[in-house]
Amino acid sequence: MAGLPGTARTRSGSPGAAAALPALDGAFLCSPLGGLMGAQAVLGLLVWALIADTTYHLHAAYGWVMFVSIFFWIVTVLFFVTYLLQLQLKFYVIPWPLVLMIFNAVATVLYITAFVTCAAAVQPTSWRQWDYNRRAAASFFACLTMITYGASTFFSFRAWKGLGSNAATSQVTDHA
């Protein structure tokens, strides 16, 4: 009965289950955008973790820094996972290079404001020395994060314009 048409075939080993999982894109990790996205995730995490470990609720300026750092950390991690698992290929209608360029440009501008706000709110005469150290470190890491978003804007602009590749390869890889 195993060979009759219309009968269900089951396999207990399920080697096809591994094929259902999306493959990791190692080339993305080695690309400038992938490396910068990983750096943004780590640096953004440091910014909001350092601010969250202080008495930030006493200073209104740090609320903006927390919003910017947490929001862009979450969205960056989502983009990173999307590109790492090659999920953008499933939604080929969305212009991913343009979306990524706009995201990075907005993140750069808002991280500039967060860095300036964070650096201006650091008070060396704070009554809690550990708050001063953490806020100063958060300002430093916010500056580094801002720089990585700026570099990502540059590389995502080049990817959006198709610089460095010919039209045939960009069309084949975008809609594969």
Automatic annotation (TrEMBL):
Q: Name the GO cellular-component terms.
A: apical plasma membrane; myelin sheath
Q: What gene name is listed for this protein?
A: Pllp
Q: Where does it reside?
A: Apical cell membrane; Myelin membrane
InterPro entries attached here? Answer: MAL, Marvel, MARVEL-CKLF_proteins
Q: What is the membrane topology noted in the UniProt record heading this document?
A: Multi-pass membrane protein
Its subunit composition reads:
Forms oligomers.
Q: Where in this chain does the entry annotate a coiled-coil region?
A: none
This protein is called: Plasmolipin
- For this UniProt entry, which segments traverse the membrane? 33-52, 64-86, 98-124, 136-157
Entry keyword set: Cell membrane, Membrane, Transmembrane, Transmembrane helix
Q: Which residues form the MARVEL domain?
A: 28-161
Answer whether the UniProt record assigns the keyword Membrane to this protein.
yes
Any one biological process term the GO annotation gives: myelination
Mention any Pfam family matching this sequence. Answer: MARVEL
**What GO molecular-function term can you cite, just one?**
structural constituent of myelin sheath
Tell me the protein family, please. Belongs to the MAL family.
Q: Mind telling me which PROSITE patterns this protein's record contains?
A: MARVEL
